[in-house]
Design goal:
By secondary structure, the protein is mainly beta. The protein is about 15% helix and about 45% strand. A hairpin with a 7-residue loop joins strand 8 and strand 9.
C-alpha cells in the first residue's frame, strides 16, 4: 500500500508532508518516505547532500526516523509527520512534527 504525500498550507506557505505510518513487521511506509525525501535530488531540489535520514528500531519494534543535517537533528516516530519545505529561503529543508502539532498548524490543500 503506497501512501502519497499531500500539499499543506501554513499561513500562506506551501509545504509537502508525509506521515510515517505502520509498525513492523506488518508493514510501514518508510520506503516511500525515503523515496519521497530523495525525489528530484538535483542541485536545488531533493535531499540535500548534507542531510542524512537514518532508520532505527527501538524497544518493542517501534520505528525511529532520524534526519541529520548540519547543526540539527530531527526525530520522527510512527504517526509523526516529515515536512519538506522547498520554498525555504535557504533551499530545501526537512523537519518533523507530531501529529497533534501538525494538525494544529496545517490544513490540506484541495
Amino acid at each position: 500500500m503506497k501512501t502519497p504525500a499531500h500539499l499543506y498550507r501554513e499561513r500562506g506557505a506551501l509545504i509537502e508532508a508525509m506521515q510515517l505510518t505502520g509498525v513492523p513487521p506488518d508493514g510501514t511506509n518508510i520506503d516511500e518516505v525515503f523515496d519521497w525525501m530523495r525525489e528530484g535530488n538535483t542541485p536545488g531540489k531533493g535531499l540535500p547532500v548534507e542531510c542524512f535520514p537514518m532508520l532505527f528500531h527501538t524497544a518493542g519494534d517501534d520505528l525511529l526516523l532520524v534526519i541529520h543535517a548540519p547543526g540539527r537533528k530531527w526525530e520522527a516516530r510512527v504517526g509523526d509527520w516529515i515536512i519538506r519545505n522547498s520554498g525555504h529561503p535557504f533551499g530545501l529543508r526537512f523537519s518533523t512534527q507530531t501529529d497533534d502539532e501538525f494538525e494544529a498548524t496545517y490544513e490540506v490543500v484541495e
